[in-house]
Write a structure and sequence with these properties.
Length: 210
C-alpha cells in the first residue's frame, strides 16, 4: 500500500460516509483526542472525547457502535467498544472477521410476548425495535467470547445495563420513533423508552442466562 492509498483511506475515515470495510463503515469525527501509550504488552490507543464509530445495517435497522480505543499486541489486538466487552482479533484472520454477522435468532415468540404485554401500538412499536437492537447487541457480545450461562449475577447486571444503554442510544438516534410534541417527546425519552427497553432486554437476555 503506497502513501496515496493510505491518504485516501484516511480521507474516507473522516468523511460523512466513512471507510467501508466488509459489511460496516468506520467513521471518525473531525476533532478526536487520542491518548497513545506503549508498554511491553503492546500499544494502546484511547479516544478521550468524541469517539470514532462503526455503522452497519442488520435486519433492516441501522446500528451505531462507538469505539473507545484499540489495543495492538505482537500477534493480536482488541477493539474497545462502548457498551460491549472488548472484541479480540488475530491479525492473520482479521480480514475474515465479519462484524455482527451471525444467524439471527428467531423472534416470533418474543413478538407474541410483546403483544400480550403492550396492548397499545405505540409501545409495541418501541418494543419490537428494541428487540431487534437487543438481538444485534447479543450477537456482537457472543463474538467477544462471552458465555452467558457462565456469568455470575454482577456480570449479568453489567451486561443488561450495557445492553439497555446501547439500545436506548440507538433508538434515540432512530427516525422510526418520534413524538408529536415537546412534552410527549420528554415523556417518551425519559419514561416510556427506558421502561419498555428494560422489559425487552430482561426478557431476551434471560433466555441466554438460564
Amino acid at each position: 500500500m503506497d502513501i496515496s492509498e493510505i491518504k485516501n483511506i484516511v480521507n474516507q475515515i473522516f468523511s460523512e460516509n466513512g471507510f467501508k470495510f466488509l459489511n460496516f463503515f468506520f467513521i471518525c469525527p473531525d476533532n478526536v483526542d487520542i491518548v497513545l501509550n506503549k508498554d511491553e504488552q503492546g500499544i494502546n490507543l484511547d479516544f478521550t472525547k468524541q469517539m470514532p464509530y462503526v455503522k452497519t445495517k442488520r435486519m433492516l435497522i441501522p446500528l451505531t457502535v462507538y469505539v473507545e480505543g484499540l489495543f495492538l499486541g505482537p500477534d493480536s489486538g482488541s477493539i474497545k467498544l462502548k457498551y460491549f466487552p472488548d472484541l479480540h482479533f488475530e491479525y492473520a484472520g482479521f480480514q475474515d472477521n465479519n462484524f455482527g454477522a451471525e444467524e439471527p435468532k428467531k423472534l416470533e415468540s418474543f413478538y407474541n410476548q410483546i403483544h400480550k404485554e403492550y396492548p397499545d401500538e405505540e409501545r409495541r412499536k418501541i418494543a419490537k425495535l428494541a428487540l431487534q437492537y437487543t438481538q444485534e447487541w447479543a450477537t456482537i457480545v457472543s463474538q467477544t467470547g462471552v458465555n452467558y450461562s457462565d456469568c455470575e449475577q454482577p456480570k449479568r447486571k453489567k451486561l443488561r445495563d450495557n445492553c439497555k444503554s446501547f439500545v436506548l442510544e440507538n433508538i434515540r438516534n432512530s427516525k422510526d420513533i418520534e413524538a408529536k410534541s415537546a412534552i410527549l417527546s420528554f415523556i417518551l425519552i425519559y419514561f416510556v423508552l427506558p421502561a419498555v427497553i428494560s422489559w425487552v432486554v430482561k426478557k431476551f437476555l434471560d433466555n441466554f442466562f438460564n
